[in-house]
Design goal:
This protein has two domains: 3-82, 2-Layer Sandwich (Phosphorylase Kinase, domain 1), CATH 3.30.200; 85-236, D-amino Acid Aminotransferase, Chain A, domain 1. It has helices spanning 46-63, 99-105, 134-139, 145-167, 213-216, 222-235, and strands at residues 3-9, 13-18, 23-28, 31-34, 39-42, 70-73, 78-82, 85-86, 89-96, 112-122, 131-132, 171-182, 188-191, 199-203. By secondary structure, the chain is α+β, with helices and mostly antiparallel strands. The two termini are 29 Å apart. Bound molecules: thymidine-5'-phosphate (TMP). Residues 92, 98-101, 175-177, 198-200 line the site of thymidine-5'-phosphate.
Length: 237
């Protein structure tokens, strides 16, 4: 595999072409942002942890029947993935009230929801990723009804699988954000990353936050939290 030109630099990752037109190389950075890039910082070692955690979880999900973009981990920070056209939706699943859900609906953080819930944001930094519903997504031409149905089905399946996985690590999966992409033949697959940047993960016993909220909220112990959640994942075997 030959690492080609850099195609894109995002907030937490860079994407490179390869000598295979169907494959891309994703390189995870230690850079961290929050509030649509307003807050900037570095979390030492984050890129390595997010790369390895995302790859482990994607492989786990593949085995459980969720197709993903994952192909092969190349080194600590770099992973080969299938080239996709990203569906411009941030798909958020929540089990417990936190963050923007608590704020919007006046529900105390930590409240168990009566059922898992899903929401979509239009992935558009200029607009600040506004919340939208299925009809908005259709009206804006972001995805077809069939794609939205597939995405919802996979998102809830990911939730069930990852809830059980993290439970066995002594961790509560509070909420998370997924992104999906289209392969060249139109097949929908899970893409982007699943990491402490994109999930809320709380110690099941103490409630301690083991995710990016420590950075967002200036809580301290950010690096330690990333290392601890990685240890929990590795202990799972
Ligand atoms: P929220 O409560 O701020 O809406 O976040 C919900 C979940 O989505 C949480 O696990 C963090 C994740 N998330 C991202 O991955 N990227 C984002 O840009 C935002 C706002 C949230």
């Amino acid at each position: 595999m030959v690492k080609g030109e850099q195609l894109y630099e995002g907030k937490a990752k860079k994407v490179f072409a390869t000598d295979d037109p169907e494959l891309l190389l994703v390189s995870y950075k230690d850079d961290a942002t929050a509030f649509n890039g307003l807050k900037k910082g570095t979390i030492a070692g984050k890129g390595v942890i997010n790369n390895k955690m995302s790859n482990a979880l994607m492989q786990y999900l593949e085995k459980k029947g969720v197709p993903t973009h994952y192909v092969e981990e190349i080194n600590d920070r770099d992973t080969l993935v299938k080239k996709v056209q990203i569906v411009p939706l941030e798909v958020i699943i929540r089990n417990i009230a936190a963050g923007s859900f608590s704020k919007h609906y006046g529900v105390e953080e930590g409240t168990l929801l009566k059922a898992p819930t899903i929401e979509f944001s239009y992935k558009n930094d200029e607009l600040g990723d506004p919340l939208i519903n299925d009809y908005h997504a259709l009206a804006l031409g972001l995805a077809t009804q069939e794609e939205i149905d597939t995405i919802k089905k996979y998102a809830f399946k990911v939730n069930e699988e990852l809830k059980a996985f993290w439970k066995s690590c002594g961790v509560t999966l509070v909420d998370f954000k997924l992104e999906f992409g289209r392969l060249s033949d139109g097949t929908i697959v899970l893409a982007d990353e699943i990491s402490p940047d994109t999930c809320r993960l709380w110690d099941s016993e103490t409630g301690m936050k083991l995710d990016k909220d420590r950075f967002r909220r200036d809580m301290g112990g950010v690096e330690d939290a990333y290392q601890e959640i990685m240890r929990r994942l590795q202990a799972h075997g």
